[in-house]
């Protein structure tokens, strides 16, 4: 069996540049790159930049992580994120894998039930939204996909014939399918027709390529300009890709939808800390309330473990009705 040689970053680069080079080689997301670099910088500054990370190890990492838990009172998930960043640094950049002896003071993990809106509240929020943001919010509530999964949808991921949405490379690198709500289909089809016009204008201007994941750009040289690969929710204007330095049209920023949902919640007079992710929580809870099998819901949500899905049983109402898509039900006559 052939053993692949591990990637070795350029030794002539500065440490953070080596980190970025390695992250990009392994196709980590830009958000992960930013987060990992921030944690590595905090780790270095914690020891006042007196020692290079290659001259430190398990003892120093344990000290740093314990400080996060005891003095900065970070959440357990934040502490794990910091650990993941440092494990990556030593394993993949410095090529000095850590052993399993790290035992920092652990942050307390608090399990809180998710914030969930009633069906009436969801409808009120959606009714206070308009345009593309309303379409995206309805899609998230009607299919249970995550915010970034919605934003990263490609045109080929929407199957009007089957009434499905294909989520590619979701959380954990998994692919899955979910609902395409009937009430959204016509509006989404019209929206995609407008996207096709924008794409044709980009092509006429000498642009029109889109970012392709992993090595697809090399494997399919013309795919980047094909309409099927374009984002369903493209940005208003083209921009320079910070990695490739190519001018192209990326997807919209998540902040736009986040602000729109927050404004709609305020206008609805709902006294809950509801966000875009609350729509996904509400989808899951309402599906359980209307009789969906929890294993089916697990698949729709893309949860690796059914225990993650079971948290919604603690916030669901006890009256169970027949299974029906929650967004379609909102607009029944």
From TrEMBL:
Every copy of the Tyr recombinase domain together lies at 112-328
Q: Name one Pfam family in it.
A: Phage_integrase
| InterPro entries linked to this entry | CB, DNA_brk_join_enz, Integrase-like_cat_sf, Integrase_catalytic, Integrase_integron-type, Integrase_recombinase_N, Integrase_SAM-like_N, Tyrosine_recombinase_XerCD
Q: Which GO terms describe its biological process?
A: DNA integration; DNA recombination
Q: Coiled-coil regions in this chain?
A: none
Query: What one GO molecular function would you report for this record?
Result: DNA binding
Core-binding (CB) domain spans which residues? 17-94
What keywords are assigned to this protein?
Answer: DNA integration, DNA recombination, DNA-binding
Is Cell inner membrane one of the keywords UniProt gives this record?
no
PANTHER family under this entry? Answer: PHAGE INTEGRASE-RELATED, PROPHAGE INTEGRASE INTD-RELATED
Q: Which family does it belong to?
A: Belongs to the 'phage' integrase family.
Q: What is this protein called?
A: Integron integrase
């Amino acid at each position: 069996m052939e053993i692949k040689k591990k990637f070795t970053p350029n030794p002539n680069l500065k440490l953070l540049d080596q980190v970025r080079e390695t992250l990009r080689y392994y196709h980590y997301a830009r958000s992960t790159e930013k987060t990992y670099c921030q944690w590595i910088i905090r780790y270095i500054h914690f020891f006042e930049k007196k020692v290079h990370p290659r001259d430190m190890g398990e003892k120093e990492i344990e000290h740093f992580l314990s400080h996060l838990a005891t003095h900065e009172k970070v959440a357990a998930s934040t502490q794990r994120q910091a650990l993941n960043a440092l494990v990556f640094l030593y394993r993949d950049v410095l090529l000095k894998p850590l052993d399993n002896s790290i035992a920092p003071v652990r942050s307390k993990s608090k399990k809180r039930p998710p914030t969930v809106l009633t069906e009436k509240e969801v409808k009120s929020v959606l009714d206070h939204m308009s345009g593309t943001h309303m379409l995206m919010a309805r899609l998230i509530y009607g299919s249970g996909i995550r915010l970034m999964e919605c934003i990263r949808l490609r045109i080929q991921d929407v199957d009007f014939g089957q009434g499905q949405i294909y989520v590619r490379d979701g959380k954990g690198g998994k692919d899955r399918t979910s609902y395409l709500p009937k009430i959204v289909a016509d509006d989404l089809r019209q929206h995609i027709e407008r996207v096709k016009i924008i794409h044709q204008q980009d092509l006429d201007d000498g642009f029109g390529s889109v970012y392709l994941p992993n090595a697809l750009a090399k494997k399919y040289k013309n795919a980047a300009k094909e309409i099927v690969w374009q984002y369903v929710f493209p940005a208003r204007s083209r921009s320079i890709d910070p990695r490739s330095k190519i001018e192209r049209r990326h997807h919209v920023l998540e902040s736009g939808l986040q602000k729109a949902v927050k404004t709609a919640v305020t206008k609805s007079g709902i006294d809950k800390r509801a966000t875009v992710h609350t729509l996904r929580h509400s989808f899951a809870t309402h599906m359980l309330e209307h009789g969906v099998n929890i294993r089916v819901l697990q698949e729709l949500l893309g949860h690796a473990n059914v225990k993650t899905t079971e948290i919604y049983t603690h916030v669901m109402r006890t009256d169970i009705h027949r299974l029906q898509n929650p967004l379609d039900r909102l607009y029944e006559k």
